[in-house]
Amino acid sequence: MWIQLSSRARDGSLQQFQLENCFLLDDMLLRGDLKYETANLAVIPFYMVAAGAFIEAANLKAGETVVVGPAGGTFGGTAVELALAVGANVIALGRDDGRLVKMEENLRSPPRFQTVPMTGIVNTDTAAILEATPLKLGVDVYNDWAPGTTKPMYLEAALHSLKDDGRAILSGGGEGAVEVPYALAVLRNLTIRGKWMCKPPTIKLLMNLINRGVVKIGRPGGAVVTTFDLEDSHAAIEHVAQHGRWRNYTVICPNSSN
């Protein structure tokens, strides 16, 4: 029977997952040396999305200046973390001064990190972004994380702050069409592209960063990780509705192992 089956389906027919989409985690390293609890590893996919934007789409290099906006959400926040980890200068945009201050405190005020409150006035916001860049020369990469309920509120100001050969990566869920400053894009040779998630080589690179302690995730990285048993799933949903945000994660653990 097995011989007959293997002759027709040489790669097997009983797999639950495609191996090319599976990545082996080093359990001894992650849970042993780095002391990650299992629940902390559940946040890795958020970093995959950010890695697709910065490592894959933008080809971000150490020393470059990047702007992330809005930076207060889970995806924008993880993008900030990842950009700092790979050696970039990072400017976080947001409308809530208090949230930006808390982000800086949570990240322990790294020297390559600044926050810029947005006003919604394009010229004012562009000037504020440029003022925060090294030598006021402009931005190499802008990563937009506009939420799905709004139009990209910072895109125009960020595009005007890009240097020659600047890259704008759209990774959010913004609604509707956007206007691009045509002449500016042509004269500065700008690249504007969308990006969601990443390919296997980028995942492997991200896992190397986590395995080597360059990127710290979950509780070791300063996050709050709250766990629930499977039978408490309704409580978990209520909890995430009230507390879900950057560095505040809710994880359901079916086997009650945190």
From TrEMBL:
<keyword id="KW-0862">Zinc</keyword>
<dbReference type="InterPro" id="IPR036291">
    <property type="entry name" value="NAD(P)-bd_dom_sf"/>
</dbReference>
<comment type="similarity">
    <text>Belongs to the zinc-containing alcohol dehydrogenase family.</text>
</comment>
<dbReference type="GO" id="GO:0046872">
    <property type="term" value="F:metal ion binding"/>
</dbReference>
<dbReference type="InterPro" id="IPR013149">
    <property type="entry name" value="ADH-like_C"/>
</dbReference>
<feature type="domain" description="Alcohol dehydrogenase-like C-terminal">
    <location>
        <begin position="76"/>
        <end position="211"/>
    </location>
</feature>
<dbReference type="Pfam" id="PF00107">
    <property type="entry name" value="ADH_zinc_N"/>
</dbReference>
<dbReference type="GO" id="GO:0016491">
    <property type="term" value="F:oxidoreductase activity"/>
</dbReference>
<keyword id="KW-0479">Metal-binding</keyword>
<protein>
    <recommendedName>
        <fullName>Alcohol dehydrogenase-like C-terminal domain-containing protein</fullName>
    </recommendedName>
</protein>
<keyword id="KW-0560">Oxidoreductase</keyword>
